[in-house]
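Sequence in, structure out. Go.
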Amino acid sequence: MRVVIVGNGLSGTILAKTMRELDPEAQIVLLGDEKHLYYPRPNLIEYLAGNLPFERLFAFKEEWYREQRLELHLDSRVREIHRDSQTVETSGGGTFPYDRLVLANGAFASIPPFRGTDKRGVFTLRTLDDAQAIQEYMEQHARVAVIGGGLLGLEIARAVNTRGGDVDVYEFFPRLLPRQLDTPGAEVLQRQIEGLGIRVHLDVATEEILGEGEALGLRFKDGGESRADMVIVAAGVRPRIDLARDAGLETDKGIVVDDALRTSDPNIFAAGDSVQHRGRIYGIIPAAFQQARTAAHTVLGRSQTYEGTVPSNTLKVMGVNVTSIGQFAPEPETAQEFRREEPDQGLYKKLVIQDGRLIGAIWMGTKEGVNEINRLVAEKADVSRWMDRLLEDEFDYTLL
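Output:
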């Protein structure tokens, strides 16, 4: 069997690695847009901060691909899928036949529709080339505006701050990490961030990037303005669906797949950030990993089902451990919430319990107990006997 994988990011690489473990004989072709070997995307932050040298960015060396007998083609963007002939065509004119095709081409940085995003000095961070361009521009432009107070925006702010940059973060929502934290938790985190000298501005909507040809600042919808030497937009990502859509596959906000990660064409599968499964797009590393592992089995004709991923993000934001799991912000009339707050220590814990079962949690400022809480949320464990003790540092999770 000849399998062509479009994309050599996390999902594409894990898929290829798993397939080789399952089938020593399958022909596996990896087509990557970038000129670089696979690197875990979180490594870009440490590289941008100056904490990780270039040679340590990459998960595997070239020799590993040869040892695994993976046919790797870098700088090979697929521009068209020919379903009738079961081939894909790259922008360089290459043609690759397939028995099974897997779309693991991920997502691209989303840029809101405000004016001035085409100016010099405006960046997004999605690729290694982006990180290198930001580093180079920062050498002469030290005052940086980061648009977006989500995970990526805060991590970019930390990296720029570490390199000596003067940083302002602008967030549209009234709190930081709106997808991972509730208001009390976000306030604890904001205090930690501002303690590093990073200025945080909440509930502000950017209208325009100022400057004649070169970014010089921001104008907001309330009429306010701020100065900046460069602007980094961190406003989320959008799944890459154009290739699948143009080939006539079913798409919505993402590439629509079934529980086997199969698209509307039985010979084409998809995994990772481009995927929409049961109406949901995850865009998180655990989901991409699980989808890749499942697709590796189903592409080879082995029975395995992807049931979805319990949303769980374990992050390190500005040096603070942050974990959000499951339904951490449900409707108040349907669930009970238990909190423990120690703002001076940067500690915030929250449990969400419905009908005696643990359905969500936030764990910030410590990693102690995170794995156990993650498991209990995934199992929707009955914690009714221990609700008043679960937030204690010394709680014995073997009781559950």
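Check: The mean pLDDT is 94. The two ends are 46 Å apart (CA to CA).
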